[in-house]
Amino acid sequence: MTEVVSISLENEMDLVLAHKRSMKVAEKLGLTVATQTTFATAVSEVARAVIEYTDNGTLAIGIEQNKTRYVLKANVTFNSEIKLTSGDEGFYYAQKLVPEFELTGQNGAYIIDMKLGLPRSLKLDAVKISILKKFFQEEQPLNPYEEIKRRNSHLHKLTAEQEEELRRTKLIDEKKTEFISIASHELKTPLTVLKAFTQMAKTTKEPVSDRLKGILNKIDLQSTKLNSLVQQLLDISRAENGNLQYNLKQVKLNSFIIEQLAVMQSIMPNHTINSTLGDDADVMIDILRMEQVFSNLLGNAAKYSNINTDIEVGSVLDSEGYITISIKDQGIGMSADTMTSIFDKFYRAEDVSKTHAGLGMGLYITSKIVTDHGGKIWVESEEHKGSTFHFNLPSCCIV
Ligand code: ADP
């Protein structure tokens, strides 16, 4: 059936709509006034009977092509515990009004079909039917009730679409995480073997030319880099599955920071790291994970600034027992828009993607580690003026 009009049958107000719309469809088809009234009466009597029992009915009116001619059809679907019978006055009356009347269905789900053969003289065809359909799509609401009903149904449709979109996005995200997890596990094994063989080759007693030594060092360096990327991928899938494990130890924060800065300074000789540390405190941290936080934030501070610029690291212990650590660079900074997304998985600022290598994993993992330690992470930045990343950690006892 080509549906022309559809009305949900919820209450008595819908009877008016059912009646008027049935009349209008019959009128637009060019049927006589008597036929219009008969068809509309049958439809509204059935609608009335259905509304008596349930508020979940739907009326659809449309045109169906039988073998040789077109028929006007009204189709009412509804769920009800009670089955309509000829004992229902309206239902009984409607059966008498239309030439074809059929009630089908079981287990509480029913369909009533009412059909009226259309005269050949109407010369209906697919084009005329589609014009009819368009007319009703564009027709103004009959009354304020129908207007509200349409808006409601539009809202319902939008909500359903959004829910579907959300469900699809979630599914894609789950698939992506699953892929990352499998891919990183698969990459890890050959990489470990590659690294082990490179180490063996580097420490061999057999004579090795200087050129080969250089090549081995390069393989070693690149496989270390690759290893750290694979490790980040593994961390992402672990973070997604809630499997990031922490081995917490109580440490004195200031000496831990000083150690981290020394390591990072040796890795980043093109930048000078200055530090101003406040009062010391003990913190409960997973040392390896917290090293990752410092390495990501300091690494970014260097990566996104010009060489020979300074990086300032500071810490402040507040009266509530939280220590805030700040890492300030003089680099490219970022827009307010970028700042809202930098802790998202795989996010990279658009302009940065063309100029700096990276995968957008570091800050996502960093923020996860910080929040899992009971802290918070945030950023202050201005484009071309540098960025300051702050994160805090709860102290377990002030020294
Ligand atoms: P990656 O550096 O691999 O892109 P991150 O997750 O560490 O991944 O960073 C995400 C994005 O945040 C970067 O692509 C960059 O746009 C921005 N960003 C991070 N740190 C800085 C910084 N210190 N200065 C400017 N932009 C930064």
Automatic annotation (TrEMBL):
Its EC number is 2.7.13.3. Pfam families: HATPase_c, HisKA. The keyword Disulfide bond does not apply. Residues 182-397 form the Histidine kinase domain. CDD domains: HisKA. InterPro entries: HATPase_C_sf (IPR036890), HATPase_dom (IPR003594), His_kinase_dom (IPR005467), HisK_dim/P_dom (IPR003661), HisK_dim/P_sf (IPR036097), Sensor_HK_Regulatory (IPR050736), Sig_transdc_His_kin-like_C (IPR004358). It comes from the Bacteria. This is histidine kinase. It comes from Mucilaginibacter gossypiicola. The lineage of its organism: Bacteria, Pseudomonadati, Bacteroidota, Sphingobacteriia, Sphingobacteriales.
